[in-house]
Every structure is written in structure tokens, then in C-alpha cells.
Amino acid sequence: xxxxxxxxxxxxxxxxxxxxxxxxxxxxxxxxxxxxxxxxxxxxxxxxxxxxxxxxxxxxxxxxxxxxxxxxxxxxxxxxxxxxxxxxxxxxxxxxxxxxxxxxxxxxxxxxxxxxxxxxxxxxxxxxxxxxxxxxxxxxxxxxxxxxxxxxxxxxxxxxxxxxxxxxx
Length: 169
Prior knowledge:
The protein contains three helices and six strands. By secondary structure, the chain is an alpha+beta fold. The protein has a six-stranded antiparallel sheet, with helices on one face. The longest helix has 15 residues, at 6-20.
């Protein structure tokens, strides 16, 4: 080995070691909110019943479910009535599902009246914000689903989200 390459090889091995090293939460910090674990388990059961191949995770105060999605080019209308340029938006294909849920402090103070369903042409997005006065938190929910979604799934999902308080420790 040539001596002039030694510093570069050392640097390269150091960078590779950093990339390969497992990451962990800071001491005392967890990667999952323990208060959401029971609710996540209930949701996972529901999603796996209707979407057995769905992937999911609970990370801090966020829950994510996904199965058979695609990036679509979606045009959104502006308040002026004009159309904005298309944007890439991930959504479910027929038979797929996409869901993001975040636990947030306080009441929902967003601009949209919720619950509300938005039509994105290729799929629909149900936006919900269920509130727990007991804990002073709300779940901010975006559920993207295709037109062929099971009405039973939607009903069970809405019931679970609306009753989340009994599953949050």
C-alpha cells in the first residue's frame, strides 16, 4: 500500500464506521411514545385485517401505515379559482392505503373544518382531529384511500380514532 493513500483510507474507514453504527435515542429519550402503544396496537390490528401487507411504525408521537402507494401528480385549486401547478403527492393505488397520525397538544386550530374528506382525483383524503379534553391532546389524522375502500374499514377506523382516548395511557 502506498503511504500517500493511507490518510484517505483511514478517513474512508472512519466514514463507513459512522454510517454503519447503529443510532439510538439520547439517554432517557425513547423512540416511541409509550402513551400511544395501545392505540397503535389497536390500529395495527385494524389495518392488518383489511390490509395484511401494510407496513407501519410508531415513532415518537407519529403513527404511519402504508400499503401499495404511488406518487401522483395532483393539481390543487387556489382560492382564486385558478389551478396551481401540479405537485407530486404520495397516495394509495386501488387496493392500497396511506395513513399518518400525529398526537399534538391542545385543541385542533387548523384552517380546515374537520372531519372533512378532500377529493384528490386519484384518491380521497380524510382529515380528522379528535380531541381528548381529559388529556388536552388531539390526534391529527390524514387517511388517504382509493375509491374502492371498504366502507367497514372506514367506519371502524373513524370509531377507533374518535375513541382514541380510551387507548391512550
